[in-house]
Design a protein that fits this description.
There is one protein chain. This protein has helices at 22-34, 64-71, 74-83, 134-149, 185-192, 195-200, 202-205, and strands spanning 2-9, 40-47, 54-61, 94-100, 119-128, 155-161, 165-166, 172-182, 212-218, 221-222. Helix 1 packs antiparallel against helix 3 (74-83). The chain has 223 residues and is α+β, with helices and mostly antiparallel strands. A hairpin with a 5-residue loop joins strand 7 and strand 8 (172-182).
Length: 223
């Protein structure tokens, strides 16, 4: 299972936090068409609570080949034209294709707010590419997993984006993605205020060469 995550910048007048708003209806229409493609599996979308013009669209794909076939197809361009109605024309869209490390073949529980997950914490770590310290990074991640496991987190998924990206300075970067489902933002804040977190956060803070760090809380809607 491959997870595609689109990071888009919205025009200011569009609000995706209201399920039946014009912006939400446009994104739903885009996802309904996308999910008709062979290999596509479930779709979610939501708006950053911290940065309201930033939104996320998430779809699952059975294989990387299924997704490659779709994005090269004429149908993809037709469907993408639907989404352009809500996009800020001065900004670019980032597409991440993520192979999550968990043994489950379905990452949707981290995004599925139809269950007990009320908000998804999405963290993006940007590292210089090619990676020279991947083993150290993964050891730090492994040290934090049991800490998060002892928290109120309802679902945890993390993994590398399969494609290199170019940052604002034109430099290549590799992106590690962490997606954690919480009942609400308060549950996440309680974790960050806990002694367990404070005693172990150094595993992440000590990571070297982080070029950029992004964290968003997103209330996801399932399509």
């Amino acid at each position: 299972m491959i997870t595609q995550m689109l990071l888009i910048q919205l025009q200011a007048e569009f609000n995706l936090n209201t399920p039946n708003s014009p912006g939400s209806e446009i994104v739903r229409q885009f996802l309904h068409h996308t999910l008709g493609a062979p290999g596509a599996h479930r779709g979610f979308f939501g708006q950053s609570l911290e940065q309201p013009t930033t939104a996320f669209i998430v779809t699952g794909w059975k294989t990387l080949e299924d997704h490659d076939t779709y994005i090269r197809s004429p149908e993809h361009e037709k469907h993408a034209s639907i989404l352009r109605a809500v996009l800020d024309p001065q900004s670019s869209t980032t597409m991440l294709r993520i192979l999550f490390e968990q043994p489950s073949d379905d990452s949707s529980p981290a995004f599925d707010t139809t269950s007990n997950v009320g908000v998804t914490e999405i963290v993006l770590y940007h590292f210089p590419s090619p990676l020279t310290n991947k083993e150290f990074i993964m050891k730090s991640v492994d040290n934090m997993r049991p800490v998060i496991g002892r928290s109120e987190a309802l679902a945890v998924y993390d993994g590398w984006a399969l494609d290199e990206k170019t940052d604002d300075k034109g430099e290549k970067c590799s992106i590690y993605v962490n997606a954690v489902g919480w009942a609400d933002v308060d549950a996440h804040m309680r974790f960050q205020g806990s002694d367990d977190f404070k005693q172990n956060v150094h595993h992440i803070m000590d990571l070297q060469d982080i070029r950029q760090f992004e964290m968003h809380h997103v209330e996801m809607y399932c399509v």
